Amino acid sequence: MGYIDRAKKNGAKVLIGGEQLKGGLFDKGYYIAPTIIENVTPEIEIVRDEVFGPVLVIFKTRSYDEAIKIHNTSPYALSASLFTKDVNKAFSFFDDVEAGVCYINAPTYGSEPHMPFGGLKNSGLGYREAGWAAIEAFSEVRTLYVDYSAKIQTVQEVKE
Prior knowledge:
By secondary structure, the protein is an alpha/beta fold. It folds into 2 domains: 1-60, no CATH class; 61-160, no CATH class. It has helices at 2-9, 45-48, 64-72, 87-96, 131-137, 155-159, and strands at 13-16, 35-38, 55-57, 76-77, 79-82, 101-104, 120-121. The chain has a 3-stranded mixed beta sheet with strand order 1-2-3, with helices on one face. The longest helix has 10 residues, at 87-96.
């Protein structure tokens, strides 16, 4: 709630939500209504921090390049999504945006278990958490060399 209150003091406008949910099961924890906020700038706290709650901030931009610039100023870079019918823009997005996982025409809800998942910058744990990359991240590589070219002698043969 503090993030939302401070955002409003900085000129942000709450379009929906923004209040604590009360009554019934909601009284047994800390819940807020799903919240959408607009009229924000990249510098304010609710944009710069990872807010673990149902809070979405909306930026209105005049161009693709302006949107990428705003996105890339974030200290976090877990995932990013672009909805477009322009296949060229879709592939440019993958090159232009700073994110560990990119989605085209899909929400940023997670990854497929067989695909590497993880972020850049201050997001994630520094390694990929799924797919073939997880095997590398969670395994310790050991090496064993065996020379089968020579005849192996027993202790008895050596003594004789």
